[in-house]
Write a structure and sequence with these properties.
Shape: globular
Largest sheet: none
Number of helices: 8
Structural class: mainly alpha
Strand content: under 5%
Radius of gyration: 19 Å
Order of helices and strands: HHHHHHHH
Distance between the termini: 68 Å
Number of strands: 0
Amino acid sequence: MVAFLTSLPTWELIRFLGLLAYLLLFAGVSLGMLYSMPVWKGKGKAALYKCHSTVTVAGTFCGILHAMILVIDTYMPFSWLEILIPFRAAYKPLWNGIGTLAAYGTLILILTTDLRNRMPHKLWRMIHIGSYPVFLAALIHGLGVGSDTKHPAVYLMYVLSFGIMVLLLIVRLFFGRKRDRAYLAHRG
């Protein structure tokens, strides 16, 4: 079994899964921001939430696989301690540590969402707002350690995804303030 695993194109799998995890996380956070906007109602809002949840879990799964394959990589293997303990990696410890923190962040977001109905809404919301720094950590990890970052298409993907995220955040903040003002006016 070990011979089979080490015969796989691990470096290509690691790169592919890292980029896929990032794109799915970007899609999950973007869909979450869109979901929170007041223009969505009924079945459309439910479908958007389902997509948001599915791509976020898929992105987390791909990110975990991305890290796990590093253990069997023949080119630059990582130990389990280097993967599990932030900033412990021998190779680019800062950038890899940020990736480890991003992975832990996505796991916390998913687990607390599963426990959402058993915790105070304000606490869940505070934790869930952590999706923004988690996304930023994934972006920084990719830019700092990604072997494909210098490829123009990959770099453009990072720039565009960040730009879209900033734009959505501005729109989200605008709708949030508008919704808060309406709520306060209604309460009198």
